[in-house]
Amino acid sequence: MTDELAQDERVASLQTPLGRNKLAIARFEAHEALSELFEFRIDALSRDPDIDFDKALGRSCCVTIAAYAGPKRHFDGVLVEAQALGMVHDLYSYRLVLRPSLWLLSRTANCRIWHDMTALAIIKEVLGQRGVQYKTATTRECRKREYCVQYRETDLAFVSRLMEEEGIYYFFQHGDGEHTLNLADAPSSHKPIPGHARVPFSKVAASGHVREEALFDWTSERRFRTGKFELRDYNFKTPGNKLIGPAKASARYAKSDLEVYDYPGKYDQESEGKRYAEIRRDAEQAFDKRRYASGEAPSLFPGGCFTLADHPRSSENKSFLVLRARHTFSAQTFRSGGAGLGSGENYRGDYEMLPADQQFHAPMVTPKPIVHGPQTARVVARPGTSGEEIDVDDHGRIRVRFHWDRDDKRSCWLRVAQMWAGSRWGGQFIPRIDMEVVVEFLEGDPDRPLVVGSVYNADNRYPWTLPANKTQSGVKTDSSKGHNGHNQVRFEDKKGSEEINVRAEKDLNTEILHAETRKIGERFQPPMGSPSRETTLLMGDDKLTVASGHRQATIAMNDTLTVGMNRQDTVGLNRSASIGVSDSVIVGASQSVTVGAAQSTTVGAAQSTTVGAAQTDTVGAVVTVTAGGVVSITAGGAIMLTAGGGVHVNGVLFVHGAIIPL
Predict the structure, then answer these.
(1) pLDDT band for position 387 (50/70/90)?
(2) Which residue ranges does the record annotate as region Disordered (predicted)?
């Protein structure tokens, strides 16, 4: 007795890990398109009321249709859904759904970073990690991306948007028990369909046991599309350049110059902008000049090319690229038969095409993740810079590690927002390694991070203990390398204890190009204490130089100067000292006064000179003593006069006491 579920000679057969004749196809529907995941739905019958699909889920299953002359058409995919529907007569009905291995990438999501790789290289790496069988037929080089982030998105969404951005699209080719993802970007990426490079047009559906594939209905369509695109972006390394990327379509119908303008274009070079604009233009123009057909041509698959033949409009007899196909097969009976559709078996297909010489690009439909708000990250150093405390490039950029990065990869170079940023002027505070910084993302783009600040944490505490010092604010730095030192400017705002504290770990250099004015104690009100200024130089020298101009010091009360060792005053010209009352000079040892020319001493009242020991006056010329009254010389011993010549006395000489003979 013939097994009515045997598939050896059936038009449509199903291979599964469950066994050759475990399930037989009752209905099959396939949807496939360029840059879309195919979906194959199978209604199948079985004698088994309770199939264990654990043996088949996630594994390859394949539908084969052999209804027409030429190679068999295979529809291979991964079983992702299985339903038990009930009974049909004495058989049990099941519904299976097959999708590509690429679909499995929609079941996994990630956050990770790529450095200095092209989009195509990243795509290949992801596909390889997930075991997707692929081939590349791309013709254009993708730009190398300094920084590319997959952020909270599935692997499928990530590779899909990269392809859409770079003008790469994909299609699948099916074999017996396998399917291959093909990456393409140009008309030359496509080849004629093996065994069916020519497909005839027929006004009436063919009939007969063995027949040739043919198309019965054919529609050509024109659509109004946007004809002009312009992108713009900004590169901080060339801030004066307007990175404009224009692209214009060749269509010349009315209003075809309507423009789509967008910013940012997400590129760094003007040539890149032009290419990205062209990709968006071509994706838009690919909706024009489409063809739609129905017929019996199961060999047609998206990504394959065929030449239409025998169409009454000769301009249509040319090569077309299949964009989309819907295949439907049903079997009402379960009899074995020869080649061709048997009684109760029916196939119909609907197809969408584009002239093969027209550029196709997939529209940008996969949204890029948006980072909703700021994040924090830890500052890190580049590889090979162990021991560094600060790692920065010539643009003041740093690298960070985001908390979500489990691959231990560093970010790109991140620009750091400063309070001011002029041309060689502004603020400069470079975040240091192990600081926690706040990162914003330009327009929420995870590929465009920007450091906007920093925050403290349990490891990095505030410089002044809180809440005890809650009235203090300021800046305290850290000596690098090695720590153990700091500079600081600190403000104390506690009422009655207001203070500004400035500390230099080593040197303090102040440059004032014009004037400096300081007032101390102007608003002093008791009982806050006496206003004062105190300067203590613990070690080293103190030097004041007035290069040009005068120095004037006014002291309302006392001035005390204590010099521990020597003091030297040098006056280039004159010196004048004015003392309102008395002047007292005490010299502990000897004193020497040298006057280069004349010296005049004027005393308004009496003058008294007391010498504890001997006094010697030496005069190089004449000594004249003039007194308005009496000149009195009193000696405790003798008075001796020695003259090289005579001693002349003009006037009366009075001698008191004994006369000593000469």
Answers:
(1) confident
(2) 467-489
User: Quick one: 189 and 305 in the same domain?
Assistant: yes
Output b/e per residue, 430-461; b: 16+ Cβ within 10 A.
ebbbebbbbbbbeeebbbbbebeebeeeeeee
- Hunting for tokens 């489409």 — which residue is that? 290
Q: Which helix (H) or strand (E) holds 58?
A: none
* Claim to verify: residue 61 and residue 127 sit in the same structural domain: no
Say if CB 62 and CB 40 are below 8 A apart: no
In a domain, 526, yes or no: no
The reply to whether 241 and 216 lie within a common domain is: no
Residues 113, 88: one domain?
A: no
Give the C-alpha separation, 294 to 199, whole Å: 12
Helix axes 155-166, 270-285, angle to 10 degrees: 100
Q: Kindly state whether residues 245 and 387 are assigned to the same domain.
A: no
How many Cβ atoms from other residues are within 10 Å of residue 411's Cβ? 22
Q: Is the link from the previous residue into 481 a cis peptide, with omega within 30 of 0? A: yes
Q: How many domains does the chain have?
A: 4
pLDDT single digits (tens) 468-519: 999 999 999 999 888 889 999 999 999 999 999 999 999 999 999 998 888 8
Q: Which residue has the tokens 């040892």?
A: 589
**Of the candidates 306, 344, 338, 346, the residue with the CA atom closest to the CA atom of residue 325:** 306
Its sign, for the CA torsion 422, 425, 426, 427, is positive
pTM above 0.90, yes or no: no
Residue 483 within a domain? no
Expressed as residue numbers, the domain containing 52 is 12-100
Task: Look at residue 347 and tell me if it is in a domain.
Answer: yes
CB 335 within 8 A of CB 345: no
Judgement on whether residues 264 and 302 belong to the same structural domain of the protein: no
Q: Are 67 and 357 in contact (CB under 8 A)?
A: no
Please work out, in degrees rounded to the nearest 5, the angle formed at the alpha carbon of residue 471 by the alpha carbons of 468 and 474: 110
